[in-house]
């Protein structure tokens, strides 16, 4: 017998889970959310997007105050780092955000259940509270939104002291002299940037021959150069084959990815950032008969249905772009489907942002993907160097690149490196969502002088008629 019953029970209170719960409640369903962490918001709010952006912003301010204000005629003397205060800022931002989700759940009359959820068959979920008490809830539909966890590197034990995951790297008690980041993806570069700005010598070791391997190749190459100019070192096409603690730090053994002579690299802190894997521990998937993909993600169809009727899954646990806003879109679409509507996610229009400085933002196809698919395309590119606002900000690195179908001019992808790229991409995401042509963006009036004019000019350039370059 269940202790209570709902239309919908969501397991996992991250961006996928809490957004699905809120949308379902808006549509009149009775909803409970089971979350084992004491705070809501999942990886994103607790140990992901939000704390990393708090530290990226704070370290950017520190670095600008120490090195970047003289050119504006602002003299600053005696800039000092107060790391505990910086961490307190991050912790407050996290606490405020997670409390905000509590408020939203209450506002939408969603029942919050603290504990670890596990599938118990016949539309039931067993919840084990932190004190060991077990209860059961029943639901017409169950949503798995349990997210992901750090992928470990075989042979290295993450102790969160010397060998740290992203979670440890968000809370280091002091600035390491030498930080080695294993993995040149988004998380490694963002956290490497934080500590580099605060004074660490950062070396990124990447197995592939490029950083940001899922991005447009031109973006990868340009970011390698720009981050290199900021002091970051890269060991590309290199694998870490062993690592152990040495004194207060660590020593890693590296080899060329293609094989060859080994070398050693010493570090005070080693950040393992080689990716994230689905988190399904303790969910009882096997007993319930929920199928997984070969890579261990929960297998779903186009409507988020798992192999078991009445059980659905969204977010990182189903794979695809492991991003908070992708999880949120899936949460909304699923809630709408469960309420009898036609929820849908356009996976061609999911932006991805790297919050380094300059920022990187992309949406849609890369040049390499278009070539591989045999799609003829035009390229419209515009440099920030030719934008008045970027010049006034002394932020002239980077470009906007728009890829449009050569025959129809429909926007197929966009890749931006530049100041506030993460905000600038929104306009192009909207264009893709609306099936717009580059000319539609080009003919839209953009305020002057703004960074957004680079988007207009890149769209003009796709048809060979940029004005300011
Ligand atoms: C350092 C870092 C920075 C990131 N930065 C960004 C960014 O800038 N932008 C972006 O879009 N994405 C970013 N991400 C990725 C983003 O955090 C994830 O894509 C997002 O959190 C996925 O949401 P989710 O709801 O699927 O899962 P999660 O946020 O992982 O939430 C899952 C929740 O389920 C709970 N849970 C798991 N199992 C159970 C169970 N059995 N019972 C009860 N509860 C359970 C977990 O405790 C967790 O709270 C970042 C990630 C990291 C690690």
From TrEMBL:
<feature type="binding site">
    <location>
        <begin position="322"/>
        <end position="325"/>
    </location>
    <ligand>
        <name>FAD</name>
    </ligand>
</feature>
<dbReference type="GO" id="GO:0006103">
    <property type="term" value="P:2-oxoglutarate metabolic process"/>
</dbReference>
<dbReference type="InterPro" id="IPR012999">
    <property type="entry name" value="Pyr_OxRdtase_I_AS"/>
</dbReference>
<dbReference type="InterPro" id="IPR050151">
    <property type="entry name" value="Class-I_Pyr_Nuc-Dis_Oxidored"/>
</dbReference>
<keyword id="KW-0560">Oxidoreductase</keyword>
<dbReference type="InterPro" id="IPR036188">
    <property type="entry name" value="FAD/NAD-bd_sf"/>
</dbReference>
<keyword id="KW-0274">FAD</keyword>
<feature type="binding site">
    <location>
        <position position="117"/>
    </location>
    <ligand>
        <name>FAD</name>
    </ligand>
</feature>
<dbReference type="InterPro" id="IPR006258">
    <property type="entry name" value="Lipoamide_DH"/>
</dbReference>
<dbReference type="GO" id="GO:0045333">
    <property type="term" value="P:cellular respiration"/>
</dbReference>
<feature type="binding site">
    <location>
        <position position="275"/>
    </location>
    <ligand>
        <name>NAD(+)</name>
    </ligand>
</feature>
<keyword id="KW-0520">NAD</keyword>
<dbReference type="Pfam" id="PF02852">
    <property type="entry name" value="Pyr_redox_dim"/>
</dbReference>
<dbReference type="GO" id="GO:0005737">
    <property type="term" value="C:cytoplasm"/>
</dbReference>
<protein>
    <recommendedName>
        <fullName>Dihydrolipoyl dehydrogenase</fullName>
        <ecNumber>1.8.1.4</ecNumber>
    </recommendedName>
</protein>
<keyword id="KW-0676">Redox-active center</keyword>
<dbReference type="Pfam" id="PF07992">
    <property type="entry name" value="Pyr_redox_2"/>
</dbReference>
<keyword id="KW-0547">Nucleotide-binding</keyword>
<dbReference type="InterPro" id="IPR004099">
    <property type="entry name" value="Pyr_nucl-diS_OxRdtase_dimer"/>
</dbReference>
<dbReference type="InterPro" id="IPR001100">
    <property type="entry name" value="Pyr_nuc-diS_OxRdtase"/>
</dbReference>
<feature type="active site" description="Proton acceptor">
    <location>
        <position position="448"/>
    </location>
</feature>
<feature type="binding site">
    <location>
        <begin position="146"/>
        <end position="148"/>
    </location>
    <ligand>
        <name>FAD</name>
    </ligand>
</feature>
<feature type="binding site">
    <location>
        <position position="53"/>
    </location>
    <ligand>
        <name>FAD</name>
    </ligand>
</feature>
<feature type="binding site">
    <location>
        <begin position="183"/>
        <end position="190"/>
    </location>
    <ligand>
        <name>NAD(+)</name>
    </ligand>
</feature>
<feature type="domain" description="Pyridine nucleotide-disulphide oxidoreductase dimerisation">
    <location>
        <begin position="350"/>
        <end position="459"/>
    </location>
</feature>
<dbReference type="GO" id="GO:1990234">
    <property type="term" value="C:transferase complex"/>
</dbReference>
<dbReference type="InterPro" id="IPR023753">
    <property type="entry name" value="FAD/NAD-binding_dom"/>
</dbReference>
<dbReference type="GO" id="GO:0004148">
    <property type="term" value="F:dihydrolipoyl dehydrogenase (NADH) activity"/>
</dbReference>
<feature type="domain" description="FAD/NAD(P)-binding">
    <location>
        <begin position="6"/>
        <end position="331"/>
    </location>
</feature>
<dbReference type="GO" id="GO:0050660">
    <property type="term" value="F:flavin adenine dinucleotide binding"/>
</dbReference>
<keyword id="KW-1015">Disulfide bond</keyword>
<feature type="binding site">
    <location>
        <position position="316"/>
    </location>
    <ligand>
        <name>FAD</name>
    </ligand>
</feature>
<keyword id="KW-0285">Flavoprotein</keyword>
<dbReference type="InterPro" id="IPR016156">
    <property type="entry name" value="FAD/NAD-linked_Rdtase_dimer_sf"/>
</dbReference>
<feature type="disulfide bond" description="Redox-active">
    <location>
        <begin position="44"/>
        <end position="49"/>
    </location>
</feature>
<feature type="binding site">
    <location>
        <position position="206"/>
    </location>
    <ligand>
        <name>NAD(+)</name>
    </ligand>
</feature>
<comment type="similarity">
    <text>Belongs to the class-I pyridine nucleotide-disulfide oxidoreductase family.</text>
</comment>
